[in-house]
Structure formats: structure tokens, C-alpha cells
Design brief:
CATH architecture: Alpha-Beta Complex
Number of helices: 9
CATH topology: Spore Coat Polysaccharide Biosynthesis Protein SpsA, Chain A
Largest sheet: 7 strands, mixed
Number of strands: 12
Number of domains: 1
Order of helices and strands: EEEHEHEHEEHEEHEHHEEHH
Shape: globular
Strand content: 15-25%
Radius of gyration: 17 Å
Distance between the termini: 35 Å
Helix content: 40-55%
Length: 250
């Protein structure tokens, strides 16, 4: 039985391609895909997993889910995986989530609503809600989103979160795709900044995505916030990221 179908909208036939970039994500990817399939209720045009040079069972876990296509990208790197997803996708709206996320109910509904009501919308994003960290740390993260990140969005006019953004494919074409020279930090702000040149980039606190706090726990909240903040400002002011090295935390 085919579980994926088109979403018909008021002004055009929108086809949403869900793209999940994954490197050695056998522990998390199954739950990610199960939540996406369940809570989208069959409304994705396609689901693509970019297997970014994994050496574990990432591919097998992805293929065990109905309607999921796996594409191998042997050149490791997040932006290179994102670019491969862009090249492979056949939909005209591309939704990117991380392999350790769990899509909440209503996420797809919000995407449909926002792109349907605003023809000028280029990109939609929202914050993370961590499902596996303490309440105290969750409050600290919430304070970061509401007291620092959201006000910065109001000032600058654009912001995206890498594991929770949706972008029109024609906007990516105008942007010449993703900047694959960026290894990790600053790539999300780079996407938002360049998309902003061609349309509205909307950041909605209510458009959240559940995700694992494993990297946050290993790197520390203060250190993580510092890296994201300085690279956000560097992309905004200098149009480049400042952190060149990235430790891939599993």
C-alpha cells in the first residue's frame, strides 16, 4: 500500500519532499522515520534518507520503513548531504530534519498552512525541544530561544534551525544550492541569510521539533550557545562562519 501522496493546495500542487541526512544514526533513525510517517499521515510526496558515508545499519533501518528511499553520499559532511538531498528531491518544497528528531503532530499541517497563505514565503523554521535532557537544562534552552534567539530574529529578519527547516526548491535554485564549504557551524544562518534575499524567512517558536540533546549534553549548553551565537553574528555581519573545525559527536 502506498503511504505517500500529494498535498493539494489552494494555488498550486505542492509536493513536499522530506529529507533526512544521516551519518551512523542506527540508534535514532528508526524513531525519526516512524514519527514522520505516522504524524504526516501519508502527506509527504517522498521521504529521502541521505546516507552520508555511514558504516553502521543506517541504510537497512531506513529501507525497513515503507516509502523511504535511501541515497548514498560518500563525501562526508552535513552541507554536502543537504546538497545531495536537494539534487535528488523531486518535490517543490523541501523539508529538512535531523536523524535524531521526532516530528510532532501538526508539524506538516503548519507547513501546509504557512506556504499556502503566503506566496512570498521562502523558508520556514522553528526551534528544538529536547526530549532526553533534564527539566533544568530544558529551561535553560528555552530561555536561550526566547530571550536571545527570537529577539535576534526580530532584529535581523531571518533565522533557521538546521534540523527543522522547510524551503522552496526554486529558492534553493536561485541560491545555487547549499554552501558546501561550511562544515557545520553557521550553515543554518547561511541558509537563512541567502534565502532572505529571495523571499520571507519565517521563524516560528510554535513550529518546534523534538530532538535529542546528546550533542548538547556532550558539548555543554554554554559552549553550544557560544558557538551558535558567534557563528550567527559572523554570518549576519561578515557573511561567513568563524568556526572551521567541528567534532562530530555521536
Amino acid at each position: 500500500m502506498k503511504l505517500l501522496k500529494n498535498i493539494n493546495m489552494k494555488n498550486n500542487n505542492v509536493k513536499i519532499s522530506l529529507i533526512v541526512c544521516a551519518y551512523n544514526e542506527e540508534k535514532y533513525l528508526g524513531d525519526c522515520l516512524d514519527c514522520a510517517i505516522k504524524n504526516s499521515e501519508g502527506r509527504f510526496y517522498e521521504i529521502i534518507v541521505i546516507d552520508n558515508a555511514s558504516t553502521d545499519k543506517t541504510k537497512e533501518i531506513a529501507l525497513a520503513r515503507p516509502g523511504v528511499r535511501v541515497v548514498r553520499e560518500n563525501q562526508k559532511g552535513l552541507t554536502r548531504a543537504r546538497e545531495r538531498g536537494y539534487q535528488e528531491a523531486t518535490g517543490n518544497i523541501l523539508a529538512y530534519i535531523d536523524a535524531d528528531t521526532r516530528m510532532p503532530e501538526g508539524w506538516v499541517d503548519r507547513v501546509v498552512e504557512e506556504f499556502e497563505k503566503n506566496d512570498e514565503l521562502a523558508c520556514l523554521s522553528g526551534p528544538y525541544v529536547y526530549y532526553d535532557i533534564s527539566k533544568a537544562k530544558s529551561l535553560s534552552v528555552k530561555a536561550y530561544w526566547y530571550l536571545l534567539a527570537t529577539p535576534m530574529y526580530w532584529i535581523v529578519g531571518y533565522m533557521t534551525v538546521g534540523g527543522n527547516f522547510v524551503i522552496r526548491k526554486d529558492i534553493l535554485e536561485k541560491m545555487d544550492g547549499f554552501d558546501t564549504t561550511i562544515e557545520f557551524y553557521g550553515e543554518d544562518t547561511n541558509i537563512a541569510r541567502r534565502a532572505h534575499a529571495f523571499g520571507k524567512v519565517k521563524f516560528m517558536p510554535s513550529h518546534y521539533m523534538y530532538t535529542s540533546g546528546r550533542r548538547l549534553e556532550k558539548q555543554g549548553i554554554a559552549s553550544t550557545c557560544k558557538e551558535y551565537t558567534k557563528n550567527f553574528l559572523s554570518e549576519v555581519l561578515l557573511h561567513k562562519s568563524v568556526t572551521k573545525e567541528y567534532k562530530d559527536l555521536r
